[in-house]
Design a protein that fits this description.
This protein is mostly helical. It has helices at 3-9, 18-29, 32-44, 48-76, 80-87, 92-127, 140-146, 148-167, 170-197, 203-210, 220-237, 244-250, 258-287, 297-307, 313-347. The protein has 15 helices and no strands. 4-fluoro-L-phenylalanine (PFF) binds at residues 28-29, 31-34, 102, 236-237, 239, 242, 244, 331, 334-335.
Length: 351
């Protein structure tokens, strides 16, 4: 479709191609939830058993809800509020809840995104010959609870990155950015996995993830705990329930195959989550970090890897956090887009 007919079809913009849409939707799904959230939850809630429950939930619940959200968005051509409102004015509140959740989620997501930028900057400074910033001592909780200066500074920086990209619009902002960033993330992760797999003791991490062990599901309370955490993680990781997929679907051309997209997005998302697990779990095993350490797990295990890597550590550390940062931004812009599309629809009197 040429530029002109595209503009005539949607005055609110649209994706340039299905690949561009896919990369943006995968970009939304793949984020801190996969790289930071998935490994620490799997580490804390049962390893292999958690992985299996998670996979079942993605297949039987996630992909179905994903298709539902994309369909609602594409059919109505509107963001969350407008889309639910198009079915019945009485349903608009569902959309408002989505917009509010997206907004509140952004506030926490941005802090975490800022932390990733802090680690990235630390390694960059180290690369430039300024020592002492890659910070082995800078643990997750140290940052969150004590390092107010960095939190505020990097939080603002992260928010500015979001705003700049979203202001670029759908095609030249979000789509251009994610089409390069997502494949780059995949290859970086692959490199890190292969490197960590060669470390002595790393094999235990793979065993923890992949050797069948149903023990964590053997009691009723254990079972419900795993299902509860895995379900929350699944919705979060697939960007469901807040209108993000409705919003992205609303910019999608009528001729694209939704069913195919609703399978590819969860498949890519799950692949990256498993790959993040395959980097973090073996790193924990190799450096004696407790799998069940909780929210700081990604940082405590990967810091060990980069700091002990020798000469290239700072470079690989910088690249790794840079790509995690990209993954985080491609997710947070979709949250911001939920809020913006709501306002855009209202402004052009559609929603
Ligand atoms: N799916 C993102 C992640 O895994 O980090 C987070 C997210 C983005 C959740 C967009 C919800 C959403 F609407």
């Amino acid at each position: 479709m040429d530029q002109k007919s595209q503009h005539m079809e949607h005055e609110r913009g649209s994706w340039g191609s299905n690949f561009g849409f896919l990369m943006a939707a995968v970009g939304s799904a793949v984020g801190l939830g996969n790289i930071w959230g998935f490994p620490y939850k799997m580490g804390r809630y049962g390893g292999f058993a958690f992985l299996i429950v998670y996979l079942l939930l993605v297949i039987f619940v996630g992909a179905v809800v994903m298709l539902g959200e994309l369909t609602i968005g594409r059919k109505t051509g509107l963001g969350a509020v407008g889309a639910y409102g198009a079915f019945s004015k009485k349903h608009r509140w569902v959309g408002y809840i989505g917009v509010a959740s997206a907004f509140f989620l952004l506030t926490f997501y941005n802090v975490l995104g800022g932390l990733v930028m802090r680690y990235m900057t630390g390694f960059l400074l180290e690369l430039m010959g300024v020592d002492g910033f890659s910070g082995q001592e800078m643990s997750f909780w140290n940052y969150i609870l004590h390092d107010y200066g960095s939190i505020v500074f990097f939080n603002i920086l992260f928010v500015v990155c979001n705003i700049v990209i979203v202001m670029g619009g759908i095609q030249s902002g979000i789509e251009k950015f994610t089409t390069v960033a997502m494949p780059a993330l995949f290859f970086m992760l692959l490199f890190v996995i292969i490197y960590i797999a060669t470390l002595p003791g790393a094999g235990e991490g793979f065993i923890y993830m992949f050797r069948p062990n149903w023990e964590p599901l053997s009691t009723a309370s254990g079972f419900f705990e795993v299902v509860r955490v895995a379900a929350g993680q699944m919705f979060f990781s697939l960007s469901l329930g807040m209108g993000a997929m409705i919003t992205y679907g609303s910019y999608l051309d009528k001729k694209e195959d939704l069913q195919k997209n609703a399978i590819i997005i969860p498949a890519c998302d799950t692949l990256i989550a498993i790959m993040a697990g395959m980097a973090v779990m073996p790193a924990c095993a190799a450096y004696g970090v407790d799998y069940a350490s909780g929210p700081g797990l990604l940082f405590s295990s990967m810091q060990q890897v980069f700091i002990n890597m020798g000469e290239f550590g700072s470079f690989v550390g910088f690249m790794f956090y840079f790509l995690v940062f990209i993954a985080a931004v491609t997710s947070s812009i979709s949250l911001l887009e939920v809020v913006c599309t709501y306002r855009i629809d209202a402004a052009i009197d559609k929603g």
